[in-house]
Amino acid sequence: MSVDFALRLFAAFACGVAIGLERQLRQRTAGLRTITLVASGACLFVTLGMLTGNGVAGVTQIAAYVVSGVGFLGGGVIMRDKGSIQGINTAATLWCSAAVGVLCGTGHYGPAIAGTGVVLATNTLLREVSRAINATPVSSADIVREYVLTVIGRQEDEIHIRTLLSNAMDAQPLSFQSLTSEDVDSEPPRIKVTATVRMHPKDQAKLERMASRMSMERGVSSISWAGKDVETAPE
Fold first, then answer.
1. What is the DSSP code string of 149-166?
2. Any idea where the MgtC/SapB/SrpB/YhiD N-terminal domain is (predicted)?
3. If you write DSSP's letter for every residue of 109-165 in order, what string do you get?
4. Could you tell me the residue ranges of all domains in the chain?
5. Sorting pLDDT into bands at 50, 70 and 90, what band is 234?
6. To the nearest whole percent, how much of the chain has pLDDT over 90?
7. For residues 207-226, average pLDDT
8. What does each C-alpha distance from 233 to 144, 145, 174, 198 come to in angstroms?
């Protein structure tokens, strides 16, 4: 039994090292040591169930607890930064590493090696496929972006500027979200009118044309626009 146990643990260690090396080379949050520990730990827990003679039901129950425990580890590597979520791929790799360790712990070496190969292929080969897809023209992407158009002009022309913006939005047409005004502390007094629109980035030229035309209107001192974070369009 000791030789069999050592073989299973070594298999889990080797598979964890193979997966962890790829993560470490890419300088991910969970690298060589973390991945190897997850695979080896999963193997040890499952092997414990087999050594205590609890049968298939006991091993299955322990494997379920392993999956729950790895879920907490995966949650720790997922981070949200400026509207984007990072670390999901690393968390998924941890989860798969635990599955590989469970397979090794139950003596299913062939499926464990196959699982390791799939994880490595996903993180290497499919990485390039993902990059190629992301490099496709943005016009084919199902996304939406929020833009903020800011117009500064004379206070006495506030109604004129707001009317220009409203008419321009209808003429394009653009998805008009909001229109606000606020005083600008300057001499002579100025007003800042801000319009928020949501549209596909491929329609950005419409916003540029609208800003160009409005810059020549009476009472407009300056006009500018900026795009915010890209969002996935709702289904």
1. EEEEEEGGGHHHHHHHHH
2. 9-131
3. HHHHHHHHHHHHHHHHHHHHHHHHHHTS-GGGS-EEEEEEEEEEEEGGGHHHHHHHH
4. 2-134, 139-232
5. very low
6. 13
7. 83
8. 5, 9, 15, 10
